[in-house]
Amino acid sequence: MAGAVRSGLDEVDAWCLAWAKSRRAALGIGKLIEPDQRLNKMRNAVTLAKAEDVDAIKHGGQSSDPAWANGYNGVALLVHRAYWMMPLHYKQVLNLHYVFREVAARGKAVMLGVSNAQWWFQINCLKAFIYGAILTRRDYDPTIVLEKSKHVSRALAIGCAP
């Protein structure tokens, strides 16, 4: 998996990019989206996240769709499980940031009505959420997790809240 990580990206980014690849396939989005189609695809993804959030609330953090995990495996499935547990705002940020990599962060922030600084703050909070959600599913020593993760300590330091 280390080969898939580009400079400036960390392990959580790699996990989320694996999820985004499956998510793009599930949304029927090809590798490249024409600029005139991007805005509609982004709006559709945000709207779908809202519908999925309502479904997750009704079903205790899970989907009512028996095929909710189709197309997701490995670490992408772990991120997808975290997706169903996260607050709506994080779902929207996850979809926009990782599924639509070709769109500038400023445009995504405007779509959600936040400043550029707030956008990057939410990215850090989202990554801390995903890191915690995935590592609680594995057999990790908590002291090792805190030593290895800048996300957990950053979330505690900045007071992330959805």
Structure description:
The chain is mostly helical and 162 residues long. Helices cover 67% and strands 0% of the residues. The protein has one domain (9-158). It has helices at residues 11-27, 35-58, 75-85, 88-99, 105-112, 116-135, 142-148, 150-158. Helix 1 (11-27) packs across helix 4 (88-99), helix 4 crosses helix 6 and helix 5 (105-112) packs across helix 6. The chain is globular and about 40 Å long. The two termini are 29 Å apart. Residues 1-6 and 139-149 have low confidence and may be disordered.
Topology summary:
Layout: H1 11-27, H2 35-58, H3 75-85, H4 88-99, H5 105-112, H6 116-135, H7 142-148, H8 150-158
Compose a concise summary of this entry.
The chain contains eight helices and no strands.
Which features does this protein show?
162 residues; mainly alpha; 8 helices; disordered N terminus
Unreliable runs: 1-6, 139-149
Record field, number of beta strands: 0
Kindly report how far apart the N and C termini lie: 29 Å
Proportion of residues in helical segments = 55-70%
